[in-house]
Amino acid sequence: MSASERSQGAAAAEPVEQALYEVRKKIYPRAVTGVFALWRWVAVWATQLVFYGLPWLTWNDRQAVLFDLVHRKFYIFGLVFWPQDIVYLTVLLIISAYSLFLFTAVGGRLWCGYACPQTVYTEIFMWIERKIEGDRMKRMKLDKGPLSGRKLALKAAKHGAWIALALWTGFTFVGYFTPIADLAAKVMQWSLGPWETFWVFFYGFATYGNAGWMREQVCKYMCPYARFQSVMFDRDTLIITYDNDRGEPRGARAKSADHKAKGLGDCVDCGICVQVCPTGIDIRNGLQYECIGCAACIDGCNQVMGKMGYPKGLIRYSSEHALEEKFDFAQMVRRVVRPRILIYTAVLWTIIIAAGLTLGNRVPVKVDVIRDRITMAAPDDPQVQNVYRLAIMNTSEQSRQFRISVTGLEGLALEAEAQPVTVGGASQRVIPVRLRVDKEKTIPGANPIVFTVETVGTEEPIVITERATLIAPKTE
Amino acid sequence: MSDFTNDFWNWYISVITVVSILACAVFLWKLTTRKLAPGEKPGTMGHVWDEDLQEFNNPLPNWWRWLFYITIVFSLGYLALYPGLGSFDGTLKWSSTGQYEKEMAAAEDNFGPLFAKYAAMDIREVAADPAARRIGENLYLNYCAQCHASDARGSRGFPNLADNAWQYGGEPETIKATLLNGRNGIMPPMAAALPGEGVKDVAHYVMSLSGMTHDNLRKTRGAELFQTNCAVCHGADGTGNKMLGAPNLTDDAWLYGRGESTIIETITQGRNGVMPAWGEFLGDDKVHILSAYVWSLSNQ
Question: What residues of chain B lie within 8 A of the CB of A373, using their CB?
Fold first, then answer.
């Protein structure tokens, strides 16, 4: 703010041009080690082992996790989802949303700091950058220096490594939609289809651009989650805070000096917390929207505090409330139990349990009944006829046999192909069925009937009942 | 955009579109900086609500502004390539109809060889091929089931295709001819030619042909009337004429329903049954497979 204050002084006399856009200042985060850095690496390994590894697993002689868009079948280990199962995707999204609400309300931007792909890939890309170009000071010096053979070689090596990783990421991503072993073979033979090529490069380019070049700008300018998570914050939400009362007034001092006697706080004003910050902010200015909650400054500051022989936690996870009232750790933890958290937890568990039960009781057979729109009866015919198409969907992976029957009206007769009918694994068949019934057993208009489709030959028969109507004409 | 009756609307749309886009570019150019009045705080956008709620100036990075310019370039490129300016077709000459035709042509390239393989085979052979049968079933459910019902057993006025009773003949080639060119089965109204009790008498004779309960006296009277009025088409013995599509009256297949009242209605008012021609719509190759499927319904 000091620069603008100065410009304000100069502006007192005449109008001044102010730019509404500015050139981004490149951030050179300094490497940091510590408890939270370790947790971030745990999150990197956990998420990336799953992401890169999952497509290579097999199950029932097919890829364990495969989203086959062409055939509209979604395989997740033993489960095969059909487009009709879209409700499970909805439930998954609701669970994700409520988890985000809950974690954010308790611990602030945990998602942003540890698990978000933007953070995770930036972490990986920065590690590569550090291995090739060196840490903060070396990188700054390299960028400032003139173009030289060494600089060119380092930059080429860095971007080469980034692009290789990005393309591997794009390849893996497409491998969730096209069987990855086939995809690998196609890459070897240089024979990828146009769409596969496009998506490998598109996703690869997005990874390279976002994790290599955009970095904190994605969080600051583009990400909606970054902004709306602050709505979930309250006074008791854990945030990364600088203890103002303990730290101020800040200032340099010798390790041996008695800083309290000099009237100084614990902050030695070393600037480490600013140097390690991936979004380039100064946490000592308080809670800011740019803070992604990665806790790098906590690790950085704790190291310095350790060296100075001061207690750790000048920068720490705390809440606004706790800072104000000087809560100790136990008091702060106690405040996690508050109505907002209890409601989020209750809703989240209700949905998880309900989803688990429905998924557990999910029947691997679906039946749709579609009535033909044809004439139902002739004037002199004592019988009413209705024709139906029964779409029998076998969502399990083994072939099954089915027997179709119908109830609901006295003397209701069913004509169809020879039963039981066979439906192959993970496929559907349409069975036309004609029902006949005496006119006098019906009422004019819709007569409720029930189709029963049951499996034959399996140890425990699966029975599906599907309600339908039989339409009868008016009797003269 | 031939919907416009007046050229004015063409220009109206084009001018508004182009001027709006250019205006966006100008605004973007002009509004990247602002003049601060003397004493104004540069840190805020100068708006204050609820006494102290202020909008801070958090400048976006420069590349963000270039994204705006890119959208303008994109929109101009789009308007040059695709239809968007009044009646201008765009240099790519793209249209949804054109795209549909292209996709149909691509599908034809894809499936054409498959259909052509079966087209070269005899219909009876095609009927024995399980893959062709599945294709035929799909074609049937798409194009035929609306009238002949999903199970091909027909409904009132629409023949049962699985009972081996054929109005025009059940040879594979005949079925194919029916599908290709359609049929128009006309029974003329006979009320004028059969005055008085004539219609009812003929009806009872017809009922007797297929063994329905009937009045014997009427049957005898009707038999004579039948020979003079109906036998030309339905044959002297009532077994019909497949060349004309005149149904066999001695079997149990009754297109419009069995029983006295229906038969009297048919004789009095006549019937007009239409099977549409599918040759032009589906093409010979698909009709070939479909014919095999329909033939197989009563021959396997």
Answer: 146
Put simply, the chain A residues between 376 and 415 with a CB less than 8 A from any chain B CB are: 376-381, 385, 387-389, 415
Task: Give the chain A residue whose CA is nearest to the CA of B254.
Answer: A378
CA distance A127 to A134: 10
**Full-model pTM:** 0.80
Amino acid present at A295: A
Tell me whether residue B77 is exposed, middle or buried, using C-beta atoms within 10 angstroms of its C-beta: 0 to 12, 13 to 18, 19 or more. exposed
**Could you tell me the two tokens for A390?**
């029964």
Beta carbons within 8 Å of A99's beta carbon, 6+ residues apart: A348
Nearest to B262 among A4, A372, A379 (CB): A379
A428-441 pLDDT, tens per residue?
899 999 999 998 89
Q: Categorise residue B238: left if φ over 0, alpha if ψ from -120 to 50, beta otherwise.
A: left
ipTM of model? 0.76
- Asked if pLDDT for residue B139 goes beyond 50, the answer is yes
Give the start-to-end residue ranges of the domains of chain A: 28-362, 365-472
Q: How many secondary structure helices (H) and strands (E) does chain B include? A: 13, 6
Task: Judge: B34–A20 Cβ closer than 8 Å, yes or no.
Answer: yes
To which CATH superfamily is domain A365-472 assigned? Immunoglobulins (2.60.40.10)
Confidence of residue A6 (pLDDT cuts 50, 70, 90): very low
Contact B31, A20 (CB under 8 A): yes
Q: Which of A292, A23, A28 is nearest to A137 (CA)?
A: A28
Domain boundaries, chain B: 7-30+46-96, 110-182+276-297, 185-275
Mutate which: A4, A7, A21, A215, vs B, most B CBs within 10 A: A21
On chain B, the residues whose CB falls within 8 A of the CB of A369 are: none
Minimal CA–CA distance to A24: which of A238, A274, A292, A213?
A213
Residues 6+ apart with CB under 8 A from B191: B199, B267, B268, B269
CA distance linking residue A212 with residue A201, whole number of Å: 15
Domain B185-275 top-level CATH class: mainly alpha
Q: Which CATH architecture has domain B110-182+276-297?
A: Orthogonal Bundle (1.10)
